[in-house]
Amino acid sequence: MEYWDLPAFASHPDAMARVLGLLHVPGDGLLLLRVGGDSADQAYWGRRAGRGLGPWPYHVTRRWLHTLAGIVRSADVHVMLDLNLAAGSPGMAARFARAALRSLPRGSLWGFEIGNEPDIYHHWVDYHLPGRASLFASSGEWDQFSPRRYVAAFAAYARALSRVAPGLPLAGPATAHPLRDLAWERRLLADAAGHVAMITVHRYPLTACAHRRATDFSTVARVLSTRISAGLQPVVTPALELARQAGLPVRMTELNSVTCEGRRGVSNTLASALWAPDALFSLWRAGLAGANIHVRQGAANAAFSMARHGLDARPLLYGLALFARAAGRRGELARLRVGRWSSAVRLWAVRSGRRLNVLVLDKGPHPAHLALRVPSGRPAVIQRLLGPSVQATAGVTLAGQRLAPDGRWVGRRTVAHARLGPGRRYRVRVPAYSGALISFRL
Fold first, then answer.
1. Would you say residue 133 has pLDDT above 60?
2. Are 45 and 95 in contact (CB under 8 A)?
3. DSSP states of 179-202 as a string?
4. d(Cα 149, Cα 141) in Å, to the nearest integer?
5. What are the residues facing 426 on neighbouring strands?
6. Which residues lie across from 382 on neighbouring strands?
7. Using CB atoms within 10 A of its CB, is residue 88 exposed (0-12), middle (13-18) or buried (19+)?
8. 377 against 410, higher pLDDT
9. Average pLDDT, rounded, for the chain
């Protein structure tokens, strides 16, 4: 979430806690809430800091930290704070870190990310900050901000933070284009390996800012495309290989289908709910340590917002909840042997203890008919993700239920069953533009 969105999300603390809870896979370690994004390089600690220095300075106060602490306690989450690198002020970052350690519940602060998408700083001409010359270009221009200068700034922040928060992990470089700008990850690992504990990258495969004729302009058809979801894997593989050599994990700290806050009629439809599980499973298979879906209050690509009445759940949130259910407790990806199949149908399998979860995503206009051979003679339980149409922005259900403004599931829970049939196979029909989670007891 963004720094400036925290008060809105905290306005309904019980609903917020339930939302985060339904996305937390039991036994999957801590749930990490990243606070950052565009707001990170506009966030200043203290009322006097940042005065007159940026177009939209956001003042982070002790009251803000107390609000964050309330979410941490109610939702039982850990926090990664993205620090303002554009200010070029390691001292301010250290003071903020000290205050955060004092305000947040003990052990809940995972660590800090240094900067937000520094590889595209040259696109932003709104920063006019004194003191940045020592960390940034001597010319004072963003087009001089290189991987080498980023690593120098990272090291300066690391030294300042080590004096007030020794032992807390640091992450970076939070690049917008992890494949195109691989030099940033390579330089950080080569020159600051002793400071960094996690490599972080971002990815939005589509955009709402491009010309409509551009190949990455967002449409429903492109959100549904396997190229967009499965295509995340080759984008992060080179960074994963570099980090693996250094013995470090890689996390995607910002992920969504469409950038520029999304596009209405595309990012807020059932299509996004079918994109999300496929994208997350692709990243899981690639070897990422985790992913953070960017949720921006009021944006078209947000999984949810907080309105006056409470939670406003979007289709994307249902897709994320479906992924969490499919992932299972301490789940491990299982191999599937698949015959000739439509490219619009995606299948994933997870073994979780004595349970096998098979997730089927039909992202095409025709229903899928499956014949599954599984070493289980027991009936399978099927939970369905359904909506009125692929372009629906409301009316989406998961296992027959919907999310109410208080964050609770309401409506009668509806599941189907599949029994072992001829040829010792389970036969399941999955409607067009829908998802089905088929769970077997082994």
1. no
2. yes
3. TTTHHHHHHHHHH-TTT-SEEEEE
4. 12
5. 372, 420
6. 416, 438
7. buried
8. 410
9. 91
Gap between the Cα atoms of 15 and 18, Å rounded: 5
At 170, list the tokens.
């640091």
Instruction: Encode pLDDT of 211-232 as tens digits.
Output: 888 989 999 999 999 999 999 9
Q: What is the DSSP letter of 206?
A: E
Residues in the chain: 442
Which phi and psi angles does 277 have, rounded to 5°?
A: -60, -40
Per-residue tokens: 362: 């039909």
Joined tokens for residue 102: 């004092």
- 52 pLDDT band, cuts 50/70/90, is very low
* Helices 90-103 and 62-75: angle between axes, nearest 10 degrees: 50
pLDDT digits (tens, 9 = 90+) for 252-283: 999 999 999 999 999 999 999 999 999 999 99
Query: 10 Å Cβ neighbour count for 306?
Result: 22
Q: Amino acid identity of 365?
A: P
Buried b (16+ CB within 10 A) or exposed e, 195-231: bbebbbbbbbbbbbeeeeeeeebbebebbbbbebbbe
**Token output for 22:** 């339904």
Omega prior to 315 cis, within 30 of 0: no
pLDDT over 90 for what percent of the chain? 81
In sequence order, the β-bridge partners of residue 384 are 436
